[in-house]
């Protein structure tokens, strides 16, 4: 009889450990997916900026300063698009470390994105953020005429 009780206790502990491992693994996969989607959104915004001419890149109507995107944009009509990513775009003057001859022809483009998720079984949100920054040169961009 004691062997059966000890065996049942060991089996119970192993089962709980296995379920905890699955839960942790799924949380890590979800976090990785959220990070990857954030990187995709940041790259999309930077590529959009890359295609703008100098005047379009400084126009806040085209290069909007605030934006939102979702983990699954095709499902936002059903309110199940998943995590909401809120982003900000800024196009500021080049830093003072750039030589004065070039400073007026360069700008610093920064895209920052935030999203919030709740760990399994928790009511405390975790706010995540990612940021891309690059320099944009007036004569280094494509000046397409439409």
How would you describe what is shown here?
By secondary structure, the protein is an alpha+beta fold. The protein has one domain. The chain is about 40% helix and about 25% strand. It has helices at about 1-50, 55, 100-105; strands at about 65-70, 85-95, 105-115, 125-135. Strands 1-2-3-4 form a four-stranded antiparallel sheet, covered by helices on one side.
- Shape descriptor reads elongated
Question: Radius of gyration over alpha carbons?
Answer: 24 Å
Number of helices: 3
Task: Give the helix proportion (percent range).
Answer: 25-40%
Sheet with most strands = 4 strands, antiparallel
Number of domains: 1
User: What separation lies between the terminal Cα atoms?
Assistant: 86 Å
| Strands, total number | 4
Helix-strand makeup class: alpha+beta
Q: Low-confidence segments, ≥5 residues, pLDDT <50?
A: none
Strand coverage percent? 25-35%
Question: What is the N-to-C order of secondary-structure elements (H for helix, E for strand)?
Answer: HHEEHEE
Widest sheet: strand order? Answer: 1-2-3-4
Quaternary arrangement of the chains shown? single chain
- The overall pLDDT average reads 82
